[in-house]
Amino acid sequence: MSDALSIYFAGDLFDHKDLIGNALLASYIERESSGQYTCILPQDLEQSSNRKEHIRNQDLKMVMEADLGLFNFDGPDLDSGTVVEFIVAKQLDIPTVILRSDFRSAGDQDASGDSWNLMCSFYPRNEVISLNGMEWYQKARGDKRPVLDTIDTLYTKLAARVIEGFAVARATPPLASDPKLIENLYQWAIRFPGAGLEEFISNENWVAEIIEKKKRKGLFE
């Protein structure tokens, strides 16, 4: 769908469980939203080179281009790359969802707070979905149902929750509505990381094109 909203899906991608879990959830989000959302997985991006800064720049560019952001905050310690990408998205006032399925307690907040460092909390246009992944799995598994049936039940439910989260985040009024301010935010976002990001983007009309695309989709309203 040409008018589908793109989601940059950030999270761990270092082992087979991370990789297939990301791919499964992305596919279920697309299916359960009837194509309203399409997911961009960093693990599926073709790297232009093996240089570390190029890989970083490509991921940052995709964060900025995306209409929305989904950030997996699992683990006792959050993945540092995911946190950086989340902050870049928040700098640009991109509607986001944080998903945590890890039932372990972590972070420096009290029992009523989030299970991660407080510096990653309290940002606007962001919906937090925190759930007990073990409990959800056991309910989906039931009396030893076939694993593929378990996957379908679990990820259908999880995708529906994420879609609900995006509806809430998108309904929150944007902080930036002045066209010049929005342009300045994006221009600064491609400049401050350094390490050749401006040159990597290369297209001098890139910012204007991204802003116009998002404006057509109602993301600045």
Automatic annotation (TrEMBL):
Show the InterPro entries listed in the entry. Answer: 2'-dNMP_N-hydrolase (IPR051239), Nucleoside_deoxyribTrfase (IPR007710)
Question: GO molecular function, one example?
Answer: 5-hydroxymethyl-dUMP N-hydrolase activity
Question: Which GO biological-process labels does this protein carry?
Answer: deoxyribonucleoside monophosphate catabolic process
Q: Which GO terms describe its cellular component?
A: nucleus
Protein name per UniProt: Nucleoside 2-deoxyribosyltransferase
Q: Which organism is it from?
A: hydrothermal vent metagenome
